[in-house]
């Protein structure tokens, strides 16, 4: 089989091997499939094998990525996995792991429904507004998909994205699972909700990513009331043209949340914007001239660099409340509200 293609599959499966029940990061070769799982996620990826065993996925990936062979052969013999190229051979002893639940082995494609084409776009724009793994926030630790809307909120930020079509079954996916789904770069076009799980399918690659769901009532009505209640100033503010490059530089030293979502600080004063990225080992600071901001009262927000890059692809404008307590990015199908710190 092609080594690079196999590495791509391994990289996807690694998301399910992280923080697993075992201290080991295991990949399961399961009679034609590679599988991995932890307490919130299962991933299944087809592979040309007819044996069953478990090995450490990080060791397998790290060594395979350094091999030069274009094609490799994978086989199982004498309680060990062999990966062989023309001039190199890797032998990994099989390890003992948890049993894979049967329910994740039997997910026929005909049971899946089609996702809206822009589902992943909505998830990418909205997910950074979810709470960062704080039990006190309950369902706000996830992203809610209901009808034709994607919602995320942490009581300081709100994101609402309207998809092209409605889905029949709503669900709340944990932020960590949403992050892994987006980082996998898979074209998930189908989904299945059953019991307390959602399964996403890439029909072309036949890869299935399953995530446990959060249970509870998502406060959609309250979120929409806040979005509609705010009194916005009439003027629309245009962001500095060079902001995207500044965000990229500040991102290098951005702080991180509990879910490893980076964030930077944007401080807005009359005629200027200050961008700061800070970590325990250093800080990056930059000031931009900015004629677009004329308010006498300054304000500052914390935002994900990834979100800011995505929002700049669709709009470079926002509005503020009359008292500068919040700002709003909006397009025809997306709204993002963030509360600010007002400075005298």
TrEMBL record:
Single GO term (MF): DNA binding
SMART domains: POL3Bc
Name of the protein: DNA polymerase III beta sliding clamp central domain-containing protein
Oxidoreductase as UniProt keyword: no
GO cellular component, one term: cytoplasm
InterPro entries given in the database record: DNA_clamp_sf, DNA_polIII_beta
Keyword annotations of the record: Cytoplasm, DNA replication, DNA-binding, DNA-directed DNA polymerase, Nucleotidyltransferase, Transferase
GO biological process: DNA strand elongation involved in DNA replication
Matching Gene3D superfamilies: 3.70.10.10, DNA Polymerase III, subunit A, domain 2 (3.10.150.10)
Protein's cellular compartments: Cytoplasm
Family to which the UniProt record says this protein belongs: Belongs to the beta sliding clamp family.
The organism of origin for this protein: marine sediment metagenome
């Amino acid at each position: 089989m092609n080594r690079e293609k196999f590495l791509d599959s391994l990289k996807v499966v690694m998301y399910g091997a992280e923080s697993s029940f075992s201290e080991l990061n295991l990949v399961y070769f399961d009679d034609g499939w590679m599988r991995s799982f932890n307490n919130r996620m299962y991933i299944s990826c087809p592979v040309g094998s007819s044996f069953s065993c478990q090995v450490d996925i990080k060791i397998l990936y790290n060594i395979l990525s350094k091999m030069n062979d274009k094609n490799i052969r994978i086989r199982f013999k004498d309680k060990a996995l062999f990966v062989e190229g023309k001039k190199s051979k890797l032998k990994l002893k099989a390890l003992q792991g948890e049993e894979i639940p049967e329910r994740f082995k039997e997910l026929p494609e005909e049971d899946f429904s089609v996702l809206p084409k822009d589902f992943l776009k909505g998830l990418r724009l909205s997910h950074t507004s979810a709470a960062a793994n704080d039990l006190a926030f309950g369902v706000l630790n996830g992203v809610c998909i209901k009808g034709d809307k994607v919602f995320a909120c942490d009581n300081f930020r709100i994101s609402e994205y309207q998809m092209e079509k409605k889905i029949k079954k709503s669900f709340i996916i944990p932020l960590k699972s949403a992050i892994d789904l987006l980082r996998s770069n898979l074209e998930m076009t189908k989904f299945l909700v059953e019991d307390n799980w959602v399964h996403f399918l890439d029909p072309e690659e036949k890869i299935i990513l399953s995530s446990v769901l959060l249970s509870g009532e998502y406060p959609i009505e309250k979120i929409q009331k806040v979005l509609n209640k705010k009194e916005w100033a009439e003027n629309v503010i245009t962001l500095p043209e060079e902001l995207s490059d500044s965000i990229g530089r500040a991102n290098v030293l951005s702080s991180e949340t509990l879910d490893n979502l980076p964030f930077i600080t944007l401080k807005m004063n009359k005629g200027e914007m200050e961008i700061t990225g800070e970590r325990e080992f250093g800080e990056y600071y930059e000031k931009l001239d900015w004629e677009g901001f004329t308010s006498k009262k300054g304000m500052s927000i914390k935002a994900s660099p990834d979100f800011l890059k995505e929002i700049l692809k669709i709009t470079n404008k926002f509005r503020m409340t009359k008292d500068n307590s919040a700002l709003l990015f909006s397009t025809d199908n997306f709204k993002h509200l963030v509360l600010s710190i007002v400075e005298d």
